[in-house]
Amino acid sequence: MTPDLMEAGARLRAAHDARPPAKATESGDRGASYSRVVQPGEVDVTHGAILYLDDITVSFDGFRALNRLSLSISAGELRCIIGPNGAGKTTMMDVITGKTRPDEGKAYFGSTIDLLRLRESQIAQIGIGRKFQKPTVYEQLTVFENLELALKADRRVRASMFFRLTGEQLDRIGEVLTLIHLKDSAQRTAGNLSHGQKQWLEIGMLLMQDPKLLLLDEPVAGMTDEETERTAELFLSLEGSHSLVVVEHDMKFIGELTQGGRNGKRVTVLHEGSVLSEGTLADVQANDKVVEVYLGR
């Protein structure tokens, strides 16, 4: 969940507690100017890539978490990232979302937006959503209220107190509820959902922000087999309309993602902070170095 959304939740909760009870209702050179106002949806993908990392290096106390990492994600692509613990997967997402500043390298969203010039909250606003491994939802609110909170809207306290959903917003929440398999649980308190359902809800909250790029960190960890299968269906349904980067250790899940939807999906293997191998799942599984450092025999 993005920092601005977490802050907004606290403000909305305060506004909710303060109001009286109501009746129950339902560019070509990649030059980016820091002063440029980037509106959501203004992502230039005329060159094909929605995310471009070039020679990204990050060091912590002499340890290179990322070592000249270069990566390109196409618009509408579903890319799977695998690799052993310590390979740099989380640090890579930290750089993309502005949580960590690299020592060297370039990071662009589309052709013109220099991510290294933006703050974490600004990056979330321009269309990059991140889901962490542990689901972060507002457990005392209902599923519906969680999605309502995640809407792009004026979140100041006064605006929140008098906010009313439009028909279009209600329709959008309904679409997302169906997409994340929680339509029948709209009025359930989020704290009563299963682990897998909470994961779906957080993904739904990201979708309410209409992100162009979704970063998903081990999204099926702790899920049942049925939940894992339905999550694969969800991600495949988003492919094309969104770009997805899925970091995961579950190779069965990776197989479901790469075999469904569009053909020719690529899998990237990270090791010691850089790309060890990249290609189809069959390609990386046949790579001796990948087998040695990650997959095993």
UniProtKB/TrEMBL annotation:
Span of domain ABC transporter? 51-297
Q: Which Pfam families match?
A: ABC_tran (PF00005), BCA_ABC_TP_C (PF12399)
Keyword entries, A-Z: ATP-binding, Nucleotide-binding, Transport
Nucleus listed as a keyword: no
- The answer on whether this UniProt entry bears the keyword Transmembrane reads no
Judging by the UniProt lineage, the source's domain of life is Bacteria
InterPro entries, per database record: ABC_AA/LPS_Transport, ABC_transporter-like_ATP-bd, ABC_transptr_urea_ATP-bd_UrtD, BCA_ABC_TP_C, P-loop_NTPase
Q: What Gene3D superfamilies does this protein map onto?
A: P-loop containing nucleotide triphosphate hydrolases
SUPFAM superfamilies per record: P-loop containing nucleoside triphosphate hydrolases
- UniProt GO MF annotations: ATP binding
Among PROSITE patterns, the record links this protein to:
ABC_TRANSPORTER_2
Enumerate the residue ranges of region (Disordered): 11-35
Q: What is the recorded name of this protein?
A: Urea ABC transporter ATP-binding protein UrtD
This protein's species is Caldimonas mangrovi
